[in-house]
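COMPLEX REQUEST
Ligand: FE2/S2 (inorganic) cluster
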Amino acid sequence: MTMQLSRSDAEDFLIKEAALLDAWKLEEWAELFTEDGEYLVPATDDPDGKPGASLFLIYDDRHRLGERAKRLLKKTAHAESPHSRTRHMTSNVAVGDSSNGTIAVSCNFVVFRSRMEVTNIYPGHAEYLLISNGSGLRIRSKKAVLDVDALRPHGKISIIL
Amino acid sequence: MMNGHKASSQELSRLVIDDRRDARFKVHRSAFVSDEILALERERVFGKCWLYLGHSSELKQPGDFISRRVGGRPLLYTRDRDNKLNALYNTCAHRGALVCRERSGNRRAFTCGYHAWTFDEKGRFVGMPGREALPPDATDNCKLDLIHVERLEEFKGFVFVCYDKNAMSLPDYLAGAGEYLAYVADQGAGGMEIVTGTQDYCVGANWKLLQENSADGYHGVPTHSTYFDYLRSRDSTNFATMNSRGWVKNLGNGHAVSESIGLLPWGRPYARWVPGWGEAAKVEVEALNKEIMERLGPERGNVVANGDRNLLIFPNLVVNDVMATTIRTFYPVKPDHMEVSAWCIAPAGESATSRDRRLRNFVEFLGPAGFATPDDVEMLELCQRGYANLEAAPYNDISRGMLSNAPTKTDELQMRTFWRRWRQLVSGDPSLELVGP
Ligand code: FES
Ligand SMILES: [Fe+2]
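STATUS: Structure written out below.
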């Protein structure tokens, strides 16, 4: 079956995702994923590495990404307590091929994170595999590839990109 | 820190108060903020100690190279055409530019971008444009070669350099820590290798705070409760074993280990299956465990496969063999800022399923986007911010377990072992004690 997804529909969906993240509605963000969804961030020195063969920064299955969302909402997630303020910018959205019921969508992103009077910038591009069912789009896979050589000066990724 | 005058050896040694009568151990917070102390550390610690350069598996073929900063110095780590490992200062003999700008690759020649002097992978000068403008003997006696780091030695695949040509041998330096590196080297029947993908990050805190933190069993529950929540949600473990406090050993020369065997709640990729991995994984984990037991015998096999260890090698190498095995090193950029690099070491040639399980398991806790390390980073940065109050509140307390004959992971002997060696080197007084409660 082939599916049609317009660029503007894809963009609307990514804007909605970004808004959930910036509003710290992280559990609602996790619910955007399918039951077998995954969230990936490769190492900064191996952006083309394969999960399971290269050491990633984030290699979350559906359970772990849900727990990541829950964790970050706890006061005891010290790196985000009190929460940072984030601003997710999404652009250059492109709809790629669809196969086996999934549609490839890519975009560029910049995430600003501010906390304790320091602002860090996370630039990169993201590759999504989306699934369209009757009630809308779901994320089967999200891979965020950073354009930095090292997490310096960031020190960490304690937010969701 | 010392009001403008140069600190004497005595003043420096008093930064660490090792009061055995009252069982109090304190470190003056100026050790974390002072530029003068950092300059002394560069000279007396990073200039004298053996420092981790990399693993031999990172350079597989002749011509493979990695450029890496070690102790703030840019080095070129190469495997040459004779299969020998080299550590060269990455700086051109002409005007000093880095001769290699890439992170890694394979080459037999490095041409400086500035005026095109060229060197081979052993550092030998091989050519320049317009050679005739220099006297005929200008290149005699290796005068224009890249300079080799004073010392390079390998111990079971772990490659170290030292900037002091008179330093003791690496095995002597490692002392009791060598045995613990050997436990890591023994995990794989066919040797060990570094997995691609480096976790390069930084912490806005003094470098010594990370050495302290890396084997600090006392902070586990308060700092990382959300990680344990994750394990509970996945494995429904009841964590009866969480109270195991293991033991800690002084391994000599400032090195220490905290250790327990078979008791912690997380999975280990070749020894301790957890329900969250599924039934199919159980069969493979058991087979891997059996291989280790048969190859090493039950006693050593049990230590290698079932032991969880946080190994601190002075001054700045951490080998944590926990839910995966990580090698971590870090260097000060400023008193309140360090750069960290961490790798995953794994049995060479392990199955794709085992490697996958290991890498998933690694990042559930470890690394700058795991469920735990970001909170360590946060805590270290909060400590550093707190030191702005050092005039009013001048000392850190590191006294836990000083009265104990059997210190555990939640005591602080591992930190005291570090600080005693640090004090000896920074003050330049070799008579100061390295062994103590
Ligand atoms: S600085 Fe390297 S050739 Fe001149
Ligand atoms: Fe920690």
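REMARKS: Chain A touches chain B at residues 41-46, 49, 51-59, 61, 63-64, 67-68, 70-71, 74, 76-80, 149-158 (CB under 8 Å). Chain A has a mean pLDDT of 96.
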